Amino acid sequence: MTALMRQAPRLGRGVAYARAQLAAHWLASPARSDGRRAPATVHAMGLGFANPLGIAAGFDRWGRLGWRAQALGFGCLELGSLTPRQASALSLGPRPPQASRLVIGFNLGLPPRCDLAQAAPAYLAGLAAAWHAADYAVINLGSPQAHALTQPPRLGELESLLAALVERRDRLAAQAGRCLPLAVKLRLTLDSPLPAIVAHLAVLGIDGLILASDAGPPATPQRYAAWHDPLRQRLACRQVAQAHACLAGRVSLVSVGGIATAAHAEARLQAGAALVQVHDALVYEGPRVALGMLRELC
């Protein structure tokens, strides 16, 4: 258990500290090649990723780290969760040459106190708002507000929502001359079965599934340490493998939750994930965690 982990009893303070540390590290000592072979480009959701490691939504919600994520070894940064108004207002500025390979995702959530009757208009507005800056968009169905949509009685309602989003995406693509891949994010406990919607994603035209394992209360040092239990890692891999088999390679799979080491990342990739995302590892291990993972993954 690192010193930072012992000193960060609350996730909020840990995230703020880690973000400041990340920025300071990049400004003082930009990442340099150490002569090791770089990972091959990963193709997922119709995009090319410099490597399979990404930063999960919630860590850099407002894009303050932004383009500097590539200097820390990441191939992808997912911002949010963002309401339509927040997505429209968020600007990362011009893409600098040193971040030419960084993929940016916008994680789209529901506004506060938005009832399910207003979910479709909110997500549609969020998708349109993300178009100006995102490389891909995520419909976040993992929030407490949206969780009810993933339950069996609402399967038809959820299918209609996703079909409307795909239709809007295709219409915007025709107008803008570029496509914005569309993913869905689901949160599951390790003993939960896959929601029925997973089997329908390819037919609906969804490009990616972000599978967040072990939904629960806000993370703590104790919960982070618990993820080092090999049994918990095996359960997460089993869940990834089940989703991979269900998707049959037609939808790109992203695994997030409890990934703290290169071995954890490699196991999720071997189970069928195309990409992995980290969050708490940045909080508790510090800004060099991706560079360390890449050295082992190479």
UniProtKB/TrEMBL annotation:
Residue ranges crossing the lipid bilayer per the database entry: none
Q: Name one Pfam family in it.
A: DHO_dh
The record's listing under Gene3D superfamilies reads:
Aldolase class I
Q: Which GO terms describe its molecular function?
A: transaminase activity
Kindly state which keywords UniProt assigns to this record, in alphabetical order.
Aminotransferase, Flavoprotein, FMN, Oxidoreductase, Pyrimidine biosynthesis, Transferase
State the InterPro entries in the record.
Aldolase_TIM, DHO_dehydrogenase, Dihydroorotate_DH_1_2, Dihydroorotate_DH_cat, Dihydroorotate_DH_CS
Q: Report the residue ranges that make up the Dihydroorotate dehydrogenase catalytic domain in this protein.
A: 234-297
Q: In which pathway does it act?
A: Pyrimidine metabolism; UMP biosynthesis via de novo pathway
Q: Which cofactor does it need?
A: FMN
* Function of the molecule: Catalyzes the conversion of dihydroorotate to orotate with quinone as electron acceptor.
Tell me the protein's name: Phosphoserine aminotransferase
